[in-house]
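User: Structure tokens for both sequences below?

Assistant:
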Amino acid sequence: MPKRAEVIPTTDATQLIAPLAQVFAVALVTALFIAYGRSSGLLGTIGFALNFVALAALVGVEFVINLVFAHLPSPTIAELRAGPLGIALTVASVLFLLGTWTFVAALWRVPGPP
């Protein structure tokens, strides 16, 4: 099952390290908040909190997609996505979108280069 725009082949190693992108994103968002977020007020704090929680949830999403779904037949995946897991995947994605936009809006108002 090729992913990643079919540039990088899907192997056990690539599936295992895929969640690291979200882990590094948590570190980046935290560093940005420490450096600039405090001066962005309540909006920055809310954006950081939403983004942090969403990224933590997306680490779990990546593990499910890469380490569980990769070994299940398509009908089983469809059945799982039709239930509470599908809702959780959607909530994590929407929360990430809201958190990112809120955090970016807060950082946009802060003078200096974030």
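Moving on to the next sequence.
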Amino acid sequence: MKVEKEYRFLENIDEIRIYNARKKDFYKPTPQEFDIEDIPIQEFINNLPIEIHTFIPYNDGEDFIIQSLGSFTLDRYDSTQEDAKGRLLSKLSPLFYDILHDDLLGVYTRRKPKNIRFVYYDGKKLTKLSTARIVYDMERIFIITNNVDTNINKEEYNEYKGFDEDKSNVIESFSQTGSYYNLNGKYTWSQGIYNIINRPKEEADDFYNIVFDLAIPEDQHIVDKIFNTTNKETTQCNEIIRIMTHDGTVKVLEVNIYSYFDESGIIIRQGLINDITQHHHYETSKPVDFLMDGFKNSTKLALLIEPLNKKHYKFSKGFYYIIEKDYEEYNHSLKIIDKIVEKDAVERIEKLYRGEIKKIYETISYEVDGNPKNKKIIDIYIERFEYNNEVHSLGFLTDITEEIREQNQLKEANELQKILIKEIHHRVKNNLQVLNSFLNLEKRAYRNDPDIIIEHMQTRLTSLALLHEKTYGSKDFKNINLKEYMKDYDEKTGNFMDSPTDIEFETYVDENLHLTIDNITPLLLIIDEITMNSIKHAFPDKSMQDKKITKKILKVDDNTACLIIMDNGVGIEDTKKITKNLGCEIIKSLTKQLSGNIRLIQPEKGMGYELIFPIQTEETE
């Protein structure tokens, strides 16, 4: 079993559809709990051609005590009045309690009647249809139900059914022209209507507007206008709408609706409907839709027709893409501007809505569903104008979020590029000053051997050039991966140093070790000095096999790193000689710049150094 509930705007009634229900779903015998007296007019009620169910509110409407049920319902469930009286609705019929409780409580608390229609299906076949009116009176709730027919007298109904048959027959000779009338909520449809909507008559057609139900979504506001107009006591309305029939055919209809009183004072609503599809010069399209068609593929640009009208508006698909709402679920209201960040823009839109200004053109920040993390930058233009003594509005939305983001990124990139260039120039200047200092020292130490000066300077320049090359394209001087540098360093250093080709350079660098450029510069120069010293002095025997210089750079902890550089050469017996030469003085100076500590180590074969240094130097913090 399945239950559906839907408000039918055209008939102004809540419709409850019940599918594949069985008797036991509705009726569950239960003992009587309350002694309830009969209504004094119960016998009179039992003989009426309609059903009246009577309930007494219990516990402020939390539940309802059954005082009486209609005879049709009792017969349907093979029950008597005594089987139902004095029971709570929630226990005797839990299903009806769930379906009706909110409606019963609403009528009880607001004291206003309400109309409901029950439609029963067995599979897809309609088996029963009844209308009900819920009324509060005499401290009771009455449900007045018609299970068989409407509350129109049958003779009266037949009288109106045959109205102006001669005229009707003439009209019906044209297959695409039809008529209908509505009397006390019941429709009568001519054959021409069924020709227009391309289907045969169905049992429930008397209770539905079978034409307007087919109106396409774009013309639903016209249907609303028709019903708002014809709900007046006497009126006339002429409109053109489009419908889509059950087989998918779109038709253009000319609709003429009249409301008037007959001689008995009964209000009648009569409609004449003509299919003008073949003669309609817009070919099932209106000027508005022609405009909309130009925007149908745009997700960043939206056309807004009547954006200041909460009921009759039309927006292109781009609008729903921009605000990220489903077309079917969106209900237009001024509350949408609550999601605009700029309050001054909100105030100007409110002024436009009140007619205090004629137009706005703003760039706004719009938070989708009020979420600051999903913010869009939108250009909005809306103009208010008068036409035929009526106020209208037209506007556009343009989503410029990506363009603004790209502009900001470009702006930030340009600013960063300027900073980087200044930083690089500053560091090149500092490095040249360091090299100049080393050059002056070596000019005095090696005045008789200029080739050594040139070779050392060439090695240092190579290291600094590599560093400059690597950092020039980088945006981050404080988070440099050392392993990538050392791989290129070994390759280029081996080519420039005057070293035997049979020396193997072996390097291991911790992958997780990232240093600033202020660390890497003195570190590379230290490695240069030690490497040049090993090449010159560690391997005096040219025929020596398996010559190797090994470097390990490890991350000790989050704040400290360690360099171990060794050769497997002849080593040195008197280490005091090393501490007095120029290369050692340069190493000490660079170690001090690095804020580190260095010591000489002597493995079983060869010699080496261990340098402990902070990952972040004081100068770069």
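User: Anything stand out in the second?

Assistant: Confidence is low (pLDDT under 50) at residues 148-175, 281-285, 617-621.
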